[in-house]
Amino acid sequence: MKHFVLSLILIVTSQLVLPYQSFAQDIPEDEEGDEIVIINEDLFGNGPARDILPVPINATLFRLACCIEIEFFSNIGEVTITLTNLTTGYVSSTVADSGYGSVMIPFISSSGLWRITFQSGGGGPSYLGTFIM
User: 18, 20, 25, 106: most buried, per Cβ within 10 A?
Assistant: First the structure.
């Protein structure tokens, strides 16, 4: 009986600590995503430019599934991801942990020019990209 209870506790605990973060539905197998070019926003701001480093974020737009897959190539902590439709004014914001490696972000599909911004916590660098729906 002790072994059964211990095994049950281990199974439940392992299910709680496995990293998983997803906010979207499945992507159809036949849909190919469009890459969203992400740049370091600080290089074009009013302040002094930071060192030019590779952007640690890759974003892929899946139009039919109405979602964006975000891949983090390094752990930059919690990141606030904001989607803004510059045509309609619609804004959606999500906080993701870059330590998970990737995250799926759903969004309301409406036509127009969209901007996606990434702001890392603690005043770290910010990144942005644009795409058209």
Answer: 106
